[in-house]
Amino acid sequence: MVLRESQGRNRVILSGLLILMGIVIGVVVSTHLDWLPFGQAESEDQIRSALPSFPPNGPELSFMEISKTVTPAVVNISSTRVIKRPGGGGGGGQAPLFDDPFFRRFFGDEFFRQFQMPRQHQEQSLGSGVIVDPEGYIVTNNHVVEQASEIKVFLSNRQEYKGKLVGSDPKSDVAVIKIEGKNDFPSAVWGNSDFLQVGEYVLAIGNPFGLNQTVTMGIISAVGRANVGIADYEDFIQTDAAINPGNSGGALVNIRGEVIGINTAIFTRSGGYQGIGFAVPSNMAQSVMNSLIKTGKVVRGWLGVSIQEISPELGKQFGVEELKGALVSDVFPDSPAHDAGLERGDVILEYQEKIVKSVSQLRNMVAQTTVGTKVELKVLRDQKEKIFKVKIGDLPKDLTEARLGEEVVPEEMDNVLNGLEVQELAADIIRQLDLPKEIQGVVVSNVTGDTRVERSGLQRGDVIQEIDRKKIRSMKDYQKVVSSLKKDKTILLLVFREGRTFFVTVSSE
Description:
Structural class: alpha+beta
Helix content: 10-25%
Largest sheet: 6 strands, antiparallel, barrel
Oligomer: single chain
CATH topology of the domain at 301-394: Pdz3 Domain
CATH superfamily of the domain at 301-394: PDZ domain
CATH class of the domain at 301-394: Mainly Beta
């Protein structure tokens, strides 16, 4: 009996020990497997591990490591520009009264000197910049150093250097300056902006309101922003990382500590941060920088076509199922595209095996292509895909621009284009509108009466060159084609306006 009780106690003790060992092993294993109790907050590493994977350019860093690594390469830029006051005479730009001899004799010169204002004054602006080369090359915005007579650069260690403008490009709002001294300045590393994804963490580093070395965090809100109205070539990264006046030219950095953008502008109604900031993508900024350093100017590639976005109506006309690609509305004579065989009405689907999602994207890709490079285009023509090889040319400095002229005598048509008044394109009208001498078609003198025509976007001074792919050389051609149009048919027009041609649809609905 005593033996049985002893054995029972031993079993209980042994069971307890086994349970205790199981708990200990479970804790150890769960620690190594990163298991967490239900409801416990995830660590920063786990949150970041859930982000989309990117090409392994480098290891991911903590926000503190990024700040310590990149902040020394972000500088404060103070530029001084001289503002000249218009006007002449002894009044320093004052009203004519101050120069009148009668009043000067009556009051005396000393009296008028009290009211004279200086003919010029200095204006200072603050911005940011990023050292991207140990030899002292700094990338910033063009508007930070534009027309500057003096540029001062302040490093994070408070050292001051005189900056020399290497070159600037207003069309992309990028500029490069150089500081002299040691050849081991702290520098940042470029990242590849082509791999950016919406939702990715970013840090904005700069000098907002003159507060040096400020770091703010956010995400990428959008990529490929164009038609913002900031620069001619736009492909902006949009972010909600706080960007304020003085941040211009600073660094937008990814979670690997790479510069993937140059902070440029904010959208605001109050003058301060409202959650929408824009940055020039690193690939564009780096391309402009390299060109400025090598040649002092930006050499951009040129395809030699006018292109436009594809609307749902145009998509039906040209057999485009997905609203992607760029519609060729004109091909310049003797241009790379003309020599390669591209035609008006072609839809460019791919550029160097990259899908063309918008006109601005294609424009930027062509502009960043080295002159002389042979590129491959996938084109949709007559609903069939074709491949073209094009040798990229140099973008001409001056492209023809047209101006609207005087109103011309209207010609009414009772058809699907009712409300569109046109006139023969005579020599005097060509002169008035400053059109190319070789242009053919009819000119729009007025758009009124029919909402279908008004919705199409046609304007006075537009030259209609084609209707439903039929050439219009005169009023006789126009009347012949229009008279055969059915009232319930959507029609396609080719229009010339302000130096370019593009397609317009007039819907029957």
